[in-house]
Task: inverse folding
């Protein structure tokens, strides 16, 4: 009975998600408007550029020559047979979004099974900690996130990279080394930065292994599988487009931030303003900044690989050269996987507001800058900064909450008397 | 010792937190007061500065003008021609005017347009002519325009004859580096709108427009002057109108240029709008005059209506103002005729002709308290931000309240150390379901009313008023269903609660046996989430802050008027123990709802409510003002949610 109603609920959630997307796709003007918003599609994820690439490819022109196309060759190959039919393209987008939702649901189920074996935290009043969100809630939060919907309707190709990331985590949770490493490689192949996720995915794969030797062995195996998959994908791409030009055009553009179309990120304005002689130095600084957190975060939070994947995705989204709301939809989808930390978070009101304000003000300031001409680039960049602050506060707050819960699990609190009265500041006293 | 001091610090922090939280509501009311006083202080002389020309390329009034007495005679001759053709049908007078322009030697043409709105269809013919500048490659242009109908609903005779005379004058000169386009538009705003649309090419619009493409063209329009000189007589003063569609303003240098010219080469009295205010050195009177000017500007900005045809150019990133000839017999200043107007216009065009790039040096955001005094954005933005922050503070204090346990507050107040204080994970969870569903439904209802009001259903006897009544019906259905559901649900919960209490339960026994901890007694009831109205009010306040502050970047006046209207009711109102109070609150909220405000407006201007409504619809359909969408998508949903909030059950 309970099982039946939950599958009914799932059908309702996924059905509504499809219905909303199909309904919104009925307005081609909306799709093209969203597809042209700089917050939604960036030079490396724009559907317009992808179509251009497919067109060039179809007509036998090397797609990566003109400096317009920055998407991976296999993506061109994927869209090559269906680009002429908008319906099929839209369905592919909807299906990918739903798949992500489904995988998040599955991940939560496996996580809950893991957590059921762990010792529960005792709460105030002697109650046990309540379980986190159900898988369906996690999927709902992803599927009905306005950022996800906007990104899907705007047909940003970040969706496929996101799908690969979530698939990698799912396969990791299931313990499938080959497929999880292939998925990480696919995500890396599509947008480069997810290569960092190899660390949390290995952590997920080895989460139940206690022997160091065995962990090392698995890690080495995984790295091999990852490299192998990546090489295979590159080789396949070479076969498809018959040149290595795509390296410069796809990964070169990501790493050197050569297309300075404004976006929500922190890079474009810097590199527009900067003298050319400083450019290489700051490029290195900016790009190292994205990658540098991977190792320390993975070491400190190695017990919580799902949270590490969230954090790394959020860091990528904040500091990468071409962020969009599609990146936000990924990490906001991964965050509820650690929903047990929500009650320790302190700044949820602030973060929600920062996201709301930046979402509303970004198009307004863009309008003032580009259409009315009474504003300027500083207006739009300032909102990018506000958005960045929102992301950073979210990361800090959630990490604090996780560590706080970890502390709570290690040393169960007194629930009455002097110590209990300390509430929030307990750890200050105990140190 | 160290432990003790730290411990007391922790407690101190907690008490401080409570203190801040409990003072926040008061603080936010103080901030509202500050904001109101700040807004009232804006017209004061000390808050405005003298305007100055910022763009050096303009060099206003420094060129020698060619407009001479012969041109003046020509203008007067044209005046007779214009008068003779003014009463002809649109098409004929447009063609007659086209011939006049052609006779001067300008390339001229006419443009037909038909414009369908949901209630009517407007037809007319524009005439335009282009003077191709001898020194240009035709990439840039200036526009001089006039419409057949003046502000005072009479024929714009002098303005049109001035255009013809200036065309003749310019033809002689070799100074121009920008083409000059003369446009004489039909109708009120729709004629120029059709011309501008055709000039700038493809623009998609949901409403069916059909305008003839232009046969004669020039380059990108840099700036425009719109002339409004009604009648055939002389004038006492020159009024400047500058407020554009949706509160957009032209660069302040446009006004500054005319200002300097009117002080030098073509001495005329200059004022803002059509009001002439006698000079006074009485501080209070000066303040009131400034206040009146500012309110005039803010009123037009808030409703988004332009004060003249210049407002249409602003949508296309073209800086423009309207010059209006004020004829006020008996006014003390020296009267001037077309000669001085011609000199002034030629000098202004020569200045704009000097521009090397788009006007950008001076301000785009300003409030004018006088034609020579401005208040900059740095001074007028803070009050609206303060208003937004006061909303946020209220929301924050409610947010804090909804997470705390009631018992925690009490125990702190009594200094009772033995009573357990909530640890983070045992705070109340916040139940946002009712609040977010209500808000979502309110927004959907708002969107539905917008759809209702702007769609033509093709029913018999369909009028805007009828559609509004239907919209109000939809809204009241939402309020009724939300409120009744909440009350019924509340009663069920109450009765279940009572039933549980009265049962001498096994459950209680089981619980006490299963958890030995003595504290479980307090856990049960305190952990019920805060009442739904608290969550809904938090949401309303947070969204109000969001909309008021973000809207202020687009349209300061609209944001301020919205903020002033809603700040006190939304902050102060809450469900009351006495039903009467709740109902009075709901009625006040109803009065500031869009239909309520429409009624107030129709009473104030002594118009029929249906006229006000069709005016709003017309402005939206023809000019694309934001008043209607803002009202339907933002203002009305918040208002509906607030009405629901005050009618929700208290606990």
Result:
């Amino acid at each position: 009975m309970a099982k039946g109603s939950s599958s009914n609920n799932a059908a309702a959630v996924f059905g509504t998600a499809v219905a909303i997307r199909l309904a919104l796709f009925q307005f081609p003007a909306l799709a093209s408007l969203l597809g042209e918003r700089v917050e939604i599609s960036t030079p490396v994820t724009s559907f317009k550029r992808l179509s251009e690439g497919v067109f060039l490819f179809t007509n036998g022109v090397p797609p990566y020559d003109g400096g317009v196309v920055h998407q991976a060759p296999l993506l061109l190959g994927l869209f090559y047979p269906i680009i002429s039919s908008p319906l099929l393209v839209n369905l592919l987008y909807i299906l990918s979004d739903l798949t992500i939702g489904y995988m998040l649901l599955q991940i939560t189920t496996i996580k809950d099974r893991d957590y059921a074996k762990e010792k529960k935290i005792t709460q105030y009043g002697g109650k046990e900690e309540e379980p986190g969100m159900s898988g369906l809630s996690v999927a709902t939060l992803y599927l009905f996130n306005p950022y996800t919907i906007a990104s899907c309707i705007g047909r940003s190709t970040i969706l496929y990279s996101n799908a690969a990331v979530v698939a990698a985590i799912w396969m990791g949770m299931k313990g499938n080394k080959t497929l999880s490493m292939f998925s990480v490689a696919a995500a890396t192949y599509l947008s480069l930065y997810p290569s960092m996720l190899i660390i949390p995915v290995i952590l997920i794969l080895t989460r139940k292994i206690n022997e160091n030797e065995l962990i090392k062995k698995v890690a080495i195996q995984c790295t091999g599988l990852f490299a192998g998959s990546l090489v295979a994908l590159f080789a396949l791409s070479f076969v498809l487009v018959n040149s290595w030009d795509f390296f410069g055009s796809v990964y070169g553009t990501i790493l050197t931030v050569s297309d300075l179309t404004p976006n929500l990120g922190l890079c474009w304005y810097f590199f527009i303003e900067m003298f050319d002689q400083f450019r290489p130095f700051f490029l290195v600084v900016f790009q190292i900044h994205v990658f540098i957190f991977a190792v320390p975060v993975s070491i400190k939070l190695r017990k919580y690989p799902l949270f590490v994947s969230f954090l790394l995705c959020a860091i990528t989204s904040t500091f990468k050269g071409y962020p969009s709301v599609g990146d936000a939809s990924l990490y906001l989808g991964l965050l509820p996987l650690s929903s047990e930390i929500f009650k320790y978070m302190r700044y949820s009101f602030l973060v929600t507001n920062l996201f709301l304000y930046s979402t509303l003000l970004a198009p307004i300031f863009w309008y003032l800058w580009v259409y009315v001409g009474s504003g300027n680039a500083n207006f739009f960049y300032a909102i990018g900064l506000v958005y960045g602050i929102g992301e950073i506060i979210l990361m800090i707050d959630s990490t604090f909450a996780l560590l706080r819960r970890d502390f709570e699990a290690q040393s169960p609190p007194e629930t009455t008397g002097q110590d209990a009265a300390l509430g929030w500041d307990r750890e200050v006293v105990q140190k | 010792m160290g432990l003790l001091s730290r411990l007391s610090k922790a407690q101190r922090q907690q008490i401080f937190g409570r203190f801040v939280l409990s003072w926040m509501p008061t603080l936010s009311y103080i901030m509202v007061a500050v904001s109101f006083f700040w807004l009232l202080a804006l017209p004061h002389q000390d808050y405005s500065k003298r305007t100055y020309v910022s763009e050096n390329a303009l060099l206003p009034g420094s060129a020698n003008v060619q407009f001479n007495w012969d041109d003046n005679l020509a203008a007067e001759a044209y005046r007779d021609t214009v008068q003779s053709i003014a009463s002809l049908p649109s098409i004929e007078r447009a063609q007659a005017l086209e011939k006049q322009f052609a006779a001067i030697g300008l390339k001229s043409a006419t443009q037909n347009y038909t414009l369908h709105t949901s209630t009517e269809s407007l037809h007319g013919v524009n005439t335009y002519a282009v003077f191709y500048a001898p020194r240009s490659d035709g990439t840039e242009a200036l526009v001089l325009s006039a419409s057949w109908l003046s502000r005072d609903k009479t024929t714009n005779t002098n303005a049109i004859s001035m255009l013809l005379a200036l065309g003749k004058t310019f033809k002689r000169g070799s100074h121009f580096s920008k083409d000059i386009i003369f446009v004489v538009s039909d109708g009120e705003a729709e004629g120029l709108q059709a011309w501008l649309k055709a000039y700038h090419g493809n623009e998609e619009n949901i409403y069916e427009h059909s305008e003839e493409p232009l046969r004669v063209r020039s380059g990108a329009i840099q700036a425009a002057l719109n002339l409004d000189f009604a009648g055939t007589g002389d004038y006492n003063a020159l009024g400047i109108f500058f407020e554009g569609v949706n509160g957009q303003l032209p660069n302040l240098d446009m006004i500054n240029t005319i200002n300097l010219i009117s002080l030098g080469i073509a001495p005329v009295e200059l004022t803002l709008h059509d009001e002439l205010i006698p000079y006074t050195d009485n501080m209070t009177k000066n303040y009131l005059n400034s206040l009146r000017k500012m309110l005039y500007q803010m009123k037009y900005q808030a409703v988004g209506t332009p004060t003249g045809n210049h407002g249409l150019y602003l949508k296309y990133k073209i800086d423009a103002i309207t010059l209006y000839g004020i004829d006020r017999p008996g006014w003390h200043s020296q009267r001037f005729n077309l000669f001085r107007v011609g000199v002034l216009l030629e000098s202004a065009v020569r200045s704009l002709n000097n521009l090397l790039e788009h006007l950008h040096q001076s301000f785009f955001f300003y409030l004018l308290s006088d034609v020579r005094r401005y208040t900059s954005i740095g001074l007028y933005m803070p009050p609206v931000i303060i208003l937004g922050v006061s909303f946020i503070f209220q929301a924050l204090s409610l947010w804090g309240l909804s997470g705390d346990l009631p018992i925690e507050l009490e125990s702190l107040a009594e200094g009772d150390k033995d009573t357990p204080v909530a640890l983070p994970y045992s705070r109340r969870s916040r139940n946002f379901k009712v609040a977010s569903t209500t808000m979502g439904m309110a927004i959907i209802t708002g969107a539905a009313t917008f759809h209702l009001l702007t769609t033509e259903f093709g029913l018999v006897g369909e009028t805007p008023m009828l559609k509004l009544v239907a919209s109000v019906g939809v809204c009241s259905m939402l309020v009724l269903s939300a409120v009744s559901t909440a009350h019924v649900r509340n009663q069920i919960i109450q009765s279940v609660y009572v039933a549980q209490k009265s049962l001498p339960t096994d459950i209680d026994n089981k619980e006490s046996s299963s958890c030995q901890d003595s504290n479980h007694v307090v856990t049960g009831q305190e952990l019920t989430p805060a009442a739904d109205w608290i969550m809904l009010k938090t949401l309303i306040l947070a969204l109000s802050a969001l909309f008021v502050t973000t809207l202020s970047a687009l349209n300061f006046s609209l944001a301020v008027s919205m903020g002033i209207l809603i700040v006190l009711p939304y902050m102060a109102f809450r469900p009351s123990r006495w039903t009467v109070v709740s109902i009075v609150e709901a009625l006040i909220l109803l009065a500031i709802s869009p239909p309520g405000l429409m009624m107030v407006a129709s009473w104030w201007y002594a118009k029929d409510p249906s006229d006000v409504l069709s005016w709003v619809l017309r402005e939206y359909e023809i000019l694309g003002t934001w008043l209607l969408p803002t009202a339907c998508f933002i203002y009305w949903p918040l208002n509906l949610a607030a009405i629901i909030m005050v009618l929700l059950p208290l606990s």
